[in-house]
Amino acid sequence: MTRHFLEINDLSPTEIQTVLDLAEDPAPALSLQRKGVALIFEKPSARTRHSMEIATIELGGHPVYVRPEEVGLDVRETTEDVTRTLMGYHAVIAARIFEHSKLERMASVSNVPIVNLLSDDAHPIQVLADLLTMRHEFGRIDGLTVAYVGDANNMARSLAIGCSMLGATLRIAHPSGYGFSEVAKAALQAAGADPIILGSPIEAANGADVVYTDAWFSMGQEAEMAQRRSDFAGFQVTEEVMASAKPSAIFMHCLPAHRGDEAADSVLDGPSSRIWPQAHNRLHSARGLLAWLTGAER
Q1: Would you kindly state where each structural domain of the chain is located, as residue ranges?
Q2: CB neighbours of residue 205 within 10 Å
Q3: CATH domain 8-123+282-293 topology
Q4: Is 92 helix (H, G, I), strand (E, B) or coil?
């Protein structure tokens, strides 16, 4: 049966741990040898493109980067027809896309795995890297407390589900009006995830093992930049926020960081920061996922 990866709970907890094990394999099987991986990008990304291309190469495959004007999903051809074409060439189709429904439509007609590289609803491939980073740091994920400070966006949704699945507790502090959407609430409920909503960053970070944040505005939200900066005043991760967490706590950020906004430079560049190992784990976790989807230890 073809398996797709549109949200983190498309894998079971045991399967997530297997993917993380494969991510740490220093000599992975060449499960993509002489095979292609299509990488469709409706919006660009440094970490996602580089990690997916190199992960594909490390498994023996050939990545093909596809710009939006080359396929024109629902413009030149329907999303379904583009998928039917590409699945005849590639072992995996991965897409960084705006509308999550396009990924669901791709999966509905595809006989090769569809991978969500980010959508407006979810960012599960980042969560694999996050979980890998936590496992490296603490030797476990079960029992950890993760404090997320900022917009309850696609990143927060996927992180909440992933933490819940592996036994970690997620707390989130966000400004009024930036809570989970109704779609996200339904997804969280369906996944059995119940993040704790708190009123301030210091309250959320109190005694936490991990303090996590994301940009206050993302690609496509530039017109909201000034309003969001005003609304998120008081929700910056500062040294004071980090001091509320455990002495052993680490700071994480999915990047890119807007310096001066969501986290102080002294935190981004400080001794608790793990943002660069976290970013580099995008490669290892992508390799583990691709290996698993293409038959390793399945």
Answers
A1: 8-123+282-293, 124-278
A2: 29
A3: Rossmann fold (3.40.50)
A4: strand
Q: What pLDDT is attached to residue 199?
A: 87
Instruction: List residues with catalytic annotation.
Output: 96, 123, 126, 214, 254, 282
Residue type, 75: V
Those residues with Cβ within 8 angstroms of residue 45's Cβ, 6 or more apart along the chain or in another chain:
96, 117, 118
Mean pLDDT for the chain overall: 96
224-244 pLDDT, tens digit per residue, is: 888 999 999 999 999 999 999
- Listed in sequence order, the DSSP H helices in the chain are 13-23, 46-58, 68-71, 79-86, 100-109, 124-138, 154-165, 182-191, 201-205, 225-231, 239-244, 265-268, 275-293
Q: Rounded to whole angstroms, how far apart are CA atoms 62 and 108?
A: 25
Predicted confidence band of residue 217 (pLDDT cuts 50, 70, 90): confident
CATH code linked to domain 124-278: 3.40.50.1370
